[in-house]
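Escalated from tier 1: pyridoxal-5'-phosphate holo job.
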Amino acid sequence: MSVDFSSRWARAEIDSSAITHNAATLRALVAPSRVWAVVKANGYGHGSVEVAQAALAGGADGLCVALVDEGVVLRRAGITAPVLLLSEQPHDQAPLIVGYGLTPTVTTTMGAAAIGSAGAQQGRAVPVHLKVDTGMHRVGVSPREALHLARYIDSHEGLDLEGLYTHFAVADDPEHPANAAQAGLFDDVVSALRADGISPRIVHAANSAAALAAPARRLDMVRVGIALYGLQPGPGVAHLCADLRPAMRLVARVSAVRWIEEGEAVSYGLRRPVDKRSLIATVPIGYADGVPRSLWSTGAGALVGGVARPFAGTITMDQLMLDCGDDSSVAPGDEVVLIGSQGTERITADDWARALGTIGYEIVCGIAPRIARRHL
Ligand SMILES: Cc1ncc(COP(=O)(O)O)c(C=O)c1O
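Tier 2 regenerated the structure:
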């Protein structure tokens, strides 16, 4: 039985025109550098195929994903733009990567060999990007070993060293000395390869934060994720995000209302008794949908009738309750905005992130699959 959640009251509305606008804004900002849109994790929870199409419409030249399957989804949807896999994948997936025309990242000789032999078997040189670990210490060949691996790739008939890149650890804090240190190490690797006669055509380093804050680090292209979705990479670069539009709205409808008396409380634990007779609105969305349970105690809430209403008690798995005070106008069927605008009020994923001590990335990636994405 296939499952379709689209008839639910709770849904995520994705504004594709915001993605296109953000891609075009970023492209204009970083030109002549190119923009590759990072659409891993189902487009940061926004829907990878639709985001990819919207970003390409806004002028993105390529796409980046984390997993082979994520790339295959894009290809099966008919997307022909370059798709970069952001880390080396299990070596037995090399034929799949080459067959679907995905661009692998290589960081080891064994990984390069697996891609190279799949390429040679198909009679072609597969474009690959060599990733250097300049300080993030997550993925990449060390700067010391980069030239050796580059030479191996360069000499392999099944490989074409199209790209060379690195990734910053603290780009959202532009003044942090690690940025200059990483950039310096990376420049040295680029120079060493060039001195050896190896010149990858696409040299890249910047994520959203670096693309926004560090013009010198935009190089041939930038890999932008979070900014494409209209969210902030971090407080240190928030002031550079004014022209970006958040693309996701998380909405639901009031499913029931009831009055409770002074001193009564709602939900598991009956944690917060009301100090006056109050209208409680039940909303059919909960932590299994990606509304973190801990949000209830942060002072956050949701919008109903253009007014912010605090959570009345703990968020449960499938439902949450809002305290509408003495406002008797709230009724079943009313629109509830958890993330997004209603009237003149707005709640963003970044607001949730600040309240919870996390980042907007985690909020949007955490919106569960059982929330249908409606692309507008
Ligand atoms: C290697 C790499 N490049 C670029 C990005 C995009 O980062 P951001 O969403 O901060 O733009 C990511 C995301 O995690 C990444 O892992």
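Residues 38, 86, 167, 207-209, 223-227, 233 surround pyridoxal-5'-phosphate (CB under 6 Å).
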